[in-house]
Amino acid sequence: MTPPRLADVALPDFGMPEATPEVPASTYRTRLEALRERAEAGGYDRLVVYADREHSANLAFLTGFDPRFEEAVLVVGPTEPPLILVGNECFGVAGAAPLAMRRELFQDLSLPSQPRDRSRPLADILGGEGVRAGSRVGLIGWKTYSDRSTIELPAFIVDEIRRLVGPGGSVENAGHLLIDAGDGLRVINDVDQLACFEAASCRTSSGVGRLLAGLRPGLTERDAVGLLQWDGSPLSCHLMLTGGPRASFGLLSPGDRPIERGDRFTVAFGIWGALTCRAGFVVEDATELPAGIRDYVDRLVGPYFAAVAEWYGALRVGQTGGALQAIVDRHLSDPFFGIFLNPGHQLHLDEWVNSPIRPGSTVELRSGMAFQVDIIPATGGDYFTTNIEDGFALADQTLRASFAERYPDAWSRIQARRRFMADGLGIDLHPDVLPFSNIPAYLPPFLLRPERVMTLVD
Questions:
Q1: DSSP conformation class of 315
Q2: Distance from first CA to last CA of the chain, Å, rounded?
Q3: What are phi and psi of 230, to 5 degrees?
């Protein structure tokens, strides 16, 4: 591989979608039936899906409804329309969901001190839905655990279900049906969902691109957020933007502090289906860095970019998560780099669904999976960090043909990004790889010269 170097590389305008794609209403019915088939195969009599504002992706995937302010509970049986339990403020909007559901007001899901005088007891509701002595019930929250008896739903729901099924029944975590890293229903996406993700990534990546182009000393952190031009799309995580000492924590929200020349800086902007992050120093070149870290590019950014480039080049349908992990380990295993999270993970409406990328993983990447490049150095010292986080999907020949036919404008953007990554950055992608970001692998370490980026091109 050609050694990484800094060079001026013009970033093309890849364009933006004229309209946001939508998942057809019929798809939600298909998803529900697929979940029922998996429940039957797993021996579950009933499934109970829980959601709250922070953890709504599973419910939204199944129904098109995500709760606001409150929690919600979906009870899925083998045949009839599922029952959605909602509080005072979500009862109406749940009725507008694209999936037909029976609704019941259950006011214990409402906010504190709101009316609670019109609901049946939870035991009566669940009992009427077939949760009874001897039942086998699968609970779906937002995580899985090695022990399926570990459940993250609120205790008042879990306790009631366990009481109803009694010692002859069972209650277990069934989150794997939706988010298993190898074959969960929610990690294999159809063409319409992928088109939604591509459109979302256009928004987050173009926003971060505008920020990189417009970042100037003297802007406050809140001023810098304005450059992202968030349009109100639902966020997949809180917006992160900080400069100076606070930037080392990575996860913090913007404040009123002016951004200063020489600052560390980080930004992460995520909406449903996409997340884009970049990090670096608010300088024009290495001479503005402290004397002890003027080798920042050679010591940290170059090896990092080499790892990311090889990682990208190894992506394809059928590749194992363990092989991708091994690439990062070979390049960045020195404790200096501080790599400790999975170097890449699946994304969806939520920022992190699951990850097949871990040491020794034999899980094969499949067509329809959407991923986040997530190789994050955490030096914990003066070198701070560097970061490329962008979204992409994997698609076999059949899915690629469908994407090109149904969403030709998005397909043109994807092909232009692939050409740019090859010709401008020296990163050759397998045909299976569909980059979604409008700043694909575009890494300027010195943020006041955003056109000067890492490349493998001579």
A1: -
A2: 11
A3: -60, 130
| 98 shares its domain with 208 | no
Q: Residue 422's domain spans which residues?
A: 5-14+185-455
Q: Which long-range contacts (CB under 8 A, 24 or more apart) does 37-43 make?
A: 38/177, 38/185, 39/76, 39/78, 39/138, 39/174, 39/177, 40/78, 42/138, 42/174, 42/177, 43/136
In a domain, 358, yes or no: yes
Alpha helices in 174-289 (DSSP H): 176-179, 191-214, 221-226
User: What is this structure's pTM?
Assistant: 0.97
Pairwise CA distance, residues 328 & 332, whole Å: 6
Domain at 166, CATH number: 3.40.350.10
Q: Answer yes or no: is 21 within a domain.
A: no
Task: Decide if 50 contacts 76 (C-beta within 8 A).
Answer: no
Q: Which helix (H) or strand (E) holds 40?
A: helix 25-41
Task: Give the side-chain half-sphere CA count within 13 A for 361.
Answer: 25
Tokens encoding 190: 């159809």
Instruction: Choose one of 148, 173, 198: the last residue of a domain.
Output: 173
Domain annotation covers residue 178: no
**Residue 194 falls inside a structural domain:** yes
Give 164's strand partners.
none
Are 201 and 156 members of one domain? no
Asked whether 275 and 389 are in contact (CB, 8 A), the reply is: yes
Q: What is the pLDDT of residues 28-86, one digit of tens each?
A: 999 999 999 999 999 999 999 999 999 999 999 999 999 999 999 999 999 999 999 99
Co-location of 160 and 190 in the same domain: no
Taking only the tens place, the pLDDT of each residue in 133-183 is 999 999 999 999 999 999 999 999 999 999 999 999 999 999 999 999 999
Encoded tokens for 413: 């953007």
Number of structural domains the chain divides into = 2
b/e map 337-367, b = 16+ CB within 10 Å? bbbeebbbbbbbbbbbbbbbbbeebebbbbb
What's the pLDDT tens digit per position in 110-139? 999 999 999 999 999 999 999 999 999 999
- For residue 188, how far is the Cα from the chain centroid? 14
Task: For strands 387-389 and 274-281, give the pairing.
Answer: antiparallel
Q: Are 343 and 311 in contact (CB under 8 A)?
A: yes
Q: Are residues 385 and 447 in the same domain?
A: yes
Mark which of 113, 138, 173 sits at the end of a domain: 173
Give the Cα separation of 202 and 197 in Å (integer).
Answer: 9
Shared domain for 326 and 405, answered yes or no, is yes
* DSSP code, position 247: G
Residue 382, Cβ neighbours under 10 Å: how many? 11
- Domain of 438: which CATH number? 3.90.230.10
Alpha-carbon distances of 178 from 49, 57, 201, rounded to whole Å: 11, 10, 23
